[in-house]
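note to self — DONT lose this again. spent like an hour looking for the file last time. sequence + predicted structure for the chain T wanted, 152 res
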Amino acid sequence: QGDVQRPADEVHPAHALLLRHLVAGAALDGAAFLVNLLPLTTETRGILDADAFARLAPDAGVINFGRGAHLVEADLWQALDAGQVGHAVLDVFTQEPPPPEHPAWTRPDVTVLPHVAAPTDEASAAAVVAAAVAAFRSTGQVPAGVDRTRGY
């Protein structure tokens, strides 16, 4: 049947399955890299914690492109100090931008990215905005709007 298009406010059915595998450790056991792209929900808040890091292969890489609240920072610092995590790449933080005294700025085992996802094509962005304005005028709702109660 091909790809199924879902409204942005509908959680993909694989979300719950993926979380069960993450929590159970099946997806993390012995992994050399952990790349987080999850939306922030009640279930995913704090998911990158000491238990998750302990399941990884020693000296694993951790990349967080999701949300800052996914990461329990104190657990990451401990995992880095212990060698369980060899290096972390952080694009998001609980406080954006992280303050000057934040440990990530001075740790050689952490790379801080500037939280820039990709360049924006002005023509396609203008078309998306125009369609959203037209939809709002006709329905009173913004398509694919953020629902803070769902976390994304």
